[in-house]
Amino acid sequence: MEKVLQILLVLMLSGTKFLTAPITALNIGFGYLQTLGLTMFGGIVGVLFFYFLSNGIMFMFAKMSSHFHADGIPPKKRSFTWKNRMIVRVKRDYGLIGLAAITPALLSIPLGTFLATKFFHDRRKVLTYLIASVMVWSVLISSVVIMF
Question: Does residue 67 have a pLDDT over 80?
């Protein structure tokens, strides 16, 4: 039962805050290949889950916001943080590939998937790049942790 909970922990970390998942899996005692398999699977499931959840959220938000703007309530002025500036710069300069590259390590899978869904509309490309990024980061992080 304890092993099942450990696997679920690694899968949930992989689907949300990916950077910590390979480190946690290796510290728990999983081998290198087990860590790769769990983190890749959890990350891919997280990307797919948050991609379809993002579509639903954006659809509901569009329906709700149309009602508020019709009532004459002006939208709030946005404040720019370092994370917002980084996201805008990556979107403008590097596009979907850049966003997918920084999603697992610097942002998080939920935030990166939401932004990719919002700004880029080619479903196949978005999912392909995000899943490829999860796989590459899984190998990189797991390999670095194993070496040191």
Answer: no
